[in-house]
Design brief:
Low-confidence stretches: none
Strand order of the largest sheet: 2-1-3-4
Distance between the termini: 83 Å
Largest sheet: 4 strands, parallel
Helix content: 25-40%
Shape: elongated
Radius of gyration: 29 Å
Mean pLDDT: 90
Number of helices: 18
C-alpha cells in the first residue's frame, strides 16, 4: 500500500468537519491529512506521500500538475472529489464515502508501472513548465499470466491492435496511441491485465467499506463522470471508462448486498466501446430477476437514482479473492455462491464467460493428458484403487486445450455453463491397473485395455502380456530372459 495523503480546502473542511476527517485519517490509516496551504509541497515530501485524495470545489487545480515533478507523485495517483458530494448528507454516508476513496487511494501501486507518453499537443505554457509528457491509465500487468486464452482475449479485444504478447503476459505496445478505454481489461476472464486506477482489489475494498460502514440500503454507481448531484445512499465509483468494467465487479457488488448501477456518460471519449461493454454486462444477476440498472446519459441516470434501493443482506467479499490465482473468476464464483445463499437461483440459467465441458466416458481412457494440458487446472485425476477424472467447471474459460490435446477425442466444450453445472463433477472412473509381480499401481485400467487391443491388432500379442507389469519388474523379467538365452547358447 502507498503512503496516502488526504487534502481538503477550507470550504470542504467546513462541510465535512474536523472530527469526521480525523476519524477517516485514523481508520483508513493514512499517512498525512491537511488543509491545502502554501507549505503543502514540503509537507508531502517530508511524509513521502505517493498517493493523494483531494476534496475541493474546483476540480483539478494548476498546482496539482506540478506534483509529479516537485514531489514525485504520479498524476494518476491523485483522486479529486467535489465537496458538493458531502453537503447536507448524513455523517455515516460522508464517512463511508471518504473512507472508501481513501482506502482505494492507498491501493494505487500499479499507477507507478505506467510509463509517461509524449503529449500530443503542447501549449506555450506547458513548454515553459517543461511538461512534454502525460500519463494515461492504460492497462498494465498485475502479475505474470501464462493462460493462453486470457492473453489472446486481451490481444483480440483491442480495436487498435495495440495489445501484444510478452513473456510475462499481454502488454500495450504503443501507450501513446492507447485510448486508455480499458476494454481489453474489462472483458478478461481473470483480470491480470488491470486498469491501474480501477483494479480488482480497489473495487473489492470500495464495496467492502460500504458493507462494513454504511448500514442502510446502498447502491454503487460505476461511472466515468463526476456526477454533480448524488443522493445519499448512492456511492459513485469513478473510473476512467465503463468499457473497463468487469462483469464480476457488478455481480460481486450485488452479492455483497450493494445494488449496482452502470452509468455511461455522454462525455465518454470511447463511447462506442463503452456502449459495447454496457450491452455485454448482464442485465440481471444470473439465476434471478434482480436487475442490473444501466443508465445511458444523464436522464436515464436520474431515473435510476430515483428508483428505490433494494434492502439486501450484507456480506463482505473475502479479502483473499483479489490475490487468488483465478482473481476475477474467483470473484465471480464467490458472487454466484453468495447470492445462492440469499435467494433461490434458477439452475437452468446460463452464466456468461463460464464454459461447460462434456467428457464421453466411452471414449475417455483416463490417460490424464487433459489434466496436463489445462492451464486453469479445471480437470483433475486422482485415486488409489480406482481413478476418478473430475472437472471443476466454474474455472473453465473455454480455452479448449483439453479438446485439442485429447488423443481419444473424448472432450468437448458445449457453450456457457448453467448454474447447475457450477461445481466439480466426476466425468469418468475406472479401476487402477497394478503390476502382477509387485502390486505397484501402473495406471488406468482403460489405458491398459486400449494398449492391449492395439498391440494385438498389430501382431504383437507376445508384447501385450507385459502391459500389466511395471517398468521396473519388466526390466528385471527381460534381463532374466536375456541372461537365460545367453547361458543356453553357451551350452
Amino acid at each position: 500500500m502507498l503512503n496516502t495523503g488526504l487534502l481538503v480546502t477550507k470550504k470542504a473542511r467546513e462541510v465535512i468537519g474536523d472530527e469526521l476527517l480525523a476519524k477517516v485519517f485514523e481508520d483508513a490509516k493514512l499517512s498525512y491529512a491537511a488543509e491545502v496551504t502554501d507549505s503543502l509541497i514540503q509537507d508531502l515530501k517530508d511524509n513521502d506521500v505517493k498517493s493523494l485524495l483531494i476534496i475541493n470545489e474546483l476540480g483539478r487545480e494548476r498546482w496539482m500538475e506540478e506534483l509529479d515533478q516537485r514531489v514525485g507523485i504520479s498524476p494518476l495517483a491523485i483522486t479529486v472529489l467535489p465537496s458538493s458530494w458531502f453537503e447536507r448528507k448524513g455523517v455515516d454516508y460522508v464517512y463511508t464515502l471518504i473512507k472508501a476513496y481513501a482506502i482505494r487511494s492507498k491501493l494505487m501501486d500499479l499507477v507507478y508501472r505506467v510509463q509517461p507518453t509524449r503529449s500530443p499537443s503542447m501549449s506555450r505554457r506547458s513548454l515553459l513548465k517543461l511538461r512534454l509528457y502525460e500519463y494515461k491509465p492504460y492497462p498494465v500487468l498485475f502479475d505474470e499470466v501464462h493462460a493462453e486464452r486470457e492473453i489472446n482475449r486481451a490481444i483480440e479485444a483491442c480495436p487498435q491492435g495495440l495489445v501484444t504478447k510478452t513473456p510475462e503476459g499481454p502488454s500495450v505496445s504503443y501507450p501513446e496511441k492507447c485510448s486508455a478505454c480499458g476494454y481489453c481489461s474489462g472483458v478478461s476472464y481473470l483480470g491480470y491485465f488491470e486498469v491501474p486506477t480501477s483494479t480488482t482489489d480497489q473495487v473489492v475494498s470500495f464495496i467492502n467499506t460500504i458493507v462494513a460502514d454504511y448500514k442502510r440500503p446502498a447502491s454503487i454507481i460505476f461511472t466515468e463522470e463526476i456526477i454533480s448531484d448524488v443522493p445519499e445512499g448512492f456511492f459513485p465509483y469513478v473510473m476512467p471508462c465503463v468499457a473497463s468494467l468487469s462483469d464480476s465487479f457488478v455481480l460481486a457488488s450485488y452479492a455483497a448486498g450493494i445494488t449496482p448501477i452502470v452509468h455511461l456518460s455522454s462525455q465518454c471519449e470511447s463511447v462506442e466501446l463503452a456502449m459495447k461493454r454496457l450491452d455485454e454486462i448482464p442485465s440481471r444477476f444470473p439465476g434471478t430477476s434482480l436487475p442490473v440498472r444501466k443508465a445511458k446519459g444523464s436522464e436515464e441516470l436520474k431515473e435510476a437514482l430515483s428508483s428505490p434501493l433494494l434492502d439486501l443482506s450484507r456480506t463482505e467479499i473475502p479479502s483473499h479473492i483479489p490475490l487468488n490465482r483465478a482473481r476475477r473468476r474467483s470473484l465471480l464464483i464467490w458472487a454466484l455462491e453468495e447470492m445462492g445463499r440469499k435467494v433461490t437461483l434458477n439452475q437452468e440459467d446460463e452464466v456468461p464467460g463460464v464454459y461447460n465441458v462434456v467428457v464421453d466416458p466411452n471414449k475417455c481412457v483416463l490417460c490424464g493428458v487433459c489434466v496436463r494440458a489445462c492451464q486453469m487446472l479445471v480437470p483433475d485425476l486422482k485415486g488409489n484403487d480406482f481413478l476418478e477424472l473430475s472437472y471443476n467447471i466454474p474455472f473453465c474459460i473455454g480455452s479448449e486445450r483439453c479438446v485439442r490435446n485429447c488423443p481419444e477425442k473424448a472432450v468437448s466444450v458445449t457453450g456457457f455453463a448453467r448454474i447447475a453445472d457450477l461445481k466439480p463433477k466426476v466425468v469418468n472412473r475406472t479401476n487402477v491397473s497394478k503390476c502382477r509381480m509387485c502390486g505397484k499401481p501402473i495406471g488406468s485400467e482403460k489405458v491398459k485395455g486400449k494398449v492391449d487391443a492395439l498391440l494385438i491388432s498389430q501382431g504383437f500379442s507376445g508384447t501385450a502380456k507385459y502391459t500389466d507389469v511395471c517398468n521396473e519388474c519388466k526390466q528385471k523379467e527381460l534381463t532374466k530372459i536375456w541372461v537365460e538365452r545367453i547361458l543356453s547358447g553357451r551350452k
